[in-house]
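Hi team,

As requested, here is the filled-out complex form for the manganese (II) ion run. I kept the field names the same as last time so the parser does not choke. Let me know if anything looks off before we queue the next batch.

— J.
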Amino acid sequence: MLAEEAYLFTPQIAALPVAGATSRFPIRRLYCVGRNYVSHIREMKEGDERDPPFFFQKPADALVFDGGNVPYPPATTDFQYEVELVVAIGTAGASIPLNDALKHVYGYAIGIDMTRRDLQREARERQLPWEPGKSFDHSAPCGPLFPKEDVGDIASGAISLSVNGIPHQQADLKQMIWNVPEIIANLSKQYRLEPGDLIFTGTPAGVGPVQINDRIEATIAGLGSLSVTITSKEV
Ligand code: MN
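And here is what came back:
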C-alpha cells in the first residue's frame, strides 16, 4: 500500500449505501448483461433470439444514487432507460460452479442501465465497441443494496419502471433468459469476480426515451424503489 501522501490527488471510491446500515459497499467493477429477456430482444429487433446473453461494463463512477440527478448526456438525442435487477458480489471466485453461484452474492438492488440508444445502434450497425452507447458519466443509477441475509435470494417478482408516473416497463424477474446463478457462472468464466463487483442483469421490454425534467421511478418486489430526475445538460 502506498502512503496516502504518495497520491497526487485523493481518489474517489464509488460506494453504495446498504439498506438499514451505516457502512457502504465499495464498488470495484460494474458489469452488465445484454439481451437477457426475450421481450426486449424482440423490441430491439436484434438478430437471432437464440443468441445467448453477453456482458459489457460501465465505469464504477457512473453510479447515481437514489434521489439523485442524471444530467442529460452529451452526444445523444435518444437517451433511454432500462430497469434491471442488480446483483452485488461479496465473495471472490473464478469459474464458479452453478450450484455454488449464490454463495458469492452479498445482496441485491434496483438499477437503471441508462443508454445513449442512437450511439448504441450506430455501434451495432458499424460493428464498433458499445462504450459510447453504454459506458458514460451518470449512466448507472442504483438504489441501496439489500443484503441477502435480510431479503433472501431474489429469483422472481415484479420489476417495473415508470416515467412521470406513467408505467413503461412491467415484467417478472423469472423471465430472465439467464437467471442469477447462470449469470454468475458464465461471467466468472471470463473474469475473476471480487467483492465490490456489481452485475446489472438485463432489462425487459418497454424501454424508451426520457427528456430533461423527467422523473424515473423503478421498483423491484422486495427491494423498494429507485428514483432519479433527468436534469439539464452539464456545461
Ligand atoms: Mn441493459
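Two things worth flagging: The two ends are 37 Å apart (CA to CA). Residues 23-231 form a domain with the Fumarylacetoacetate hydrolase; domain 2 fold (CATH 3.90.850.10).

Thanks,
J.
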